Amino acid sequence: MNSIVYVFLFATLVMSFTSYVSAEVSVEPIRHPRRNPSESECTETCANSFTGGDKSRIEKVEILRDFYCNCHIKIA
Description:
By secondary structure, the chain is α+β, with helices and mostly antiparallel strands. The protein contains two helices and three strands, in the order αβαββ. It has helices spanning 2-22, 39-50, and strands at 25-31, 58-63, 68-74. The protein has a three-stranded antiparallel beta sheet, with helices on one face. Strand 2 and strand 3 form a beta hairpin. The longest helix has 21 residues, at 2-22. The chain is elongated, with a radius of gyration of 19 Å.
């Protein structure tokens, strides 16, 4: 009985680990040409620079300083 429980726990851990690995996100800083850009401007700049214009792969953006944005990009 205990071995069945251990096998079930192991399978659950393996399945959760693979979903964690496939949801990897890369964080890339980028300089925006305008001072104090809005979030939508940062999203557009990130999409054009890293994904060829695909905004669906941009998970979120952070406005860091006057001209800089952090782009959180979905890898897979």
